[in-house]
Amino acid sequence: MRATLVNAEKFVGVANGALKMAARDVRVFYGESEALHGVDLDIYENEVLAFIGPSGCGKSTFLRCLNRMNDTIDGCRVTGRIELDGEDIYDRSLDVVLLRARVGMVFQKPNPFPKSIYENIAYGPRLHGLASGRAELDDIVERSLQRAGLWEEVKDRLEQPGTGLSGGQQQRLCIARAIAVSPEVILMDEPCSALDPIATAKVEQLITELSETYTIVIVTHNMQQAARVSRRTAFFHLGNLVEVDDTTKIFTSPSDGRTEDYITGRFG
Ligand SMILES: Nc1ncnc2c1ncn2[C@@H]1O[C@H](COP(=O)(O)OP(=O)(O)O)[C@@H](O)[C@H]1O
Ligand SMILES: [Mg+2]
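The line above is the sequence of Phosphate ABC transporter ATP-binding protein; the predicted structure tokens follow.
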């Protein structure tokens, strides 16, 4: 058995899969200002975990800790410990590029590379040496687009720019790009907030399908979306993780008054 930080009694009754990631006493500082005040959270294999809470409460900040995207922000400092499969992801010897392939990210605003649809998907597998030749790369591109539900719409125009697709297609392209490097965890920061309802429904459907293979953590400001796609929900408020529980419990009988106030619209 690997040594881990599991603190099982704190999380009883909310999970049945294997532990995938564990965060302990995670604090994030932007300069002198502490934006996250010691977050403890376990994330289980193949779950869809939603982060909700008022704007500015630290959801994106915490999400970025999970694949060290905060490293790219000047003046941002992270303390505490985060494990992926029992390994400290902030360990100095860890390859951050590899980490970000294992823990992929999809952003609020679709951000395809200014390259062809094909190259958007092929870039990561090539970088990580996942294909031994063109045929294998073609295969990865096709399978990734299939999984993201985009293949039929783009198969005849793979050489055209990814930025020429509609917003919803671009977001599925970004999901395909994340999938192409065979991630274990996919982080999504309000992936539907720039999409219309039809494109949103497609992405939500996709999240449900993808959770069979991947662990998914999704930030959403839309409580109906959290209720539709997630098995567990974590409520953040003013830089604290207030509670995490089964999504139905959070939305019907939360333990904390702050969660109750938020889900009933008393603040937000
Ligand atoms: N790059 C940054 N530089 C300085 N402060 C930041 C930065 N990103 C976020 N913050 C601050 O950290 C807090 C949490 O922000 P954020 O994680 O974006 O919240 P949420 O995603 O829940 O809306 C806010 O007070 C915000 O102003
Ligand atoms: Mg945010």
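Note on the example: Residues 1-14 have pLDDT under 50 and may be disordered. The chain is about 35% helix and 25% strand.
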